[in-house]
């Protein structure tokens, strides 16, 4: 571990360079989980307030445990189609 700006970190953090990041067709802001996991989770979170980090963590753990394997498989299987749609949308909004 090394100390950086008064904080201990497990390794030397280095800034990204153009040489280390390949140009991507899709936006770096788009995560695969945005389309399946968080979209589904948002329904359970509607009008819900947490009063502590622990309460939120407990709810998230419980929510994930309540999903069967087919939920996660379905989300994984639709990723190629979703990524293609994102890439071909040329930055335009779509549902």
UniProtKB/TrEMBL annotation:
Q: Where is this region: Disordered?
A: 1-29
Alphabetized InterPro entries for the sequence: RNaseH_sf (IPR036397), Transposase-MT_Hybrid (IPR052709)
Give the molecular function GO annotations: nucleic acid binding
Top-rank taxon, per record:
Eukaryota
Q: Which PANTHER family does this UniProt record tie to the protein?
A: MARINER MOS1 TRANSPOSASE-LIKE PROTEIN
Protein name per Swiss-Prot or TrEMBL: MOS1T transposase
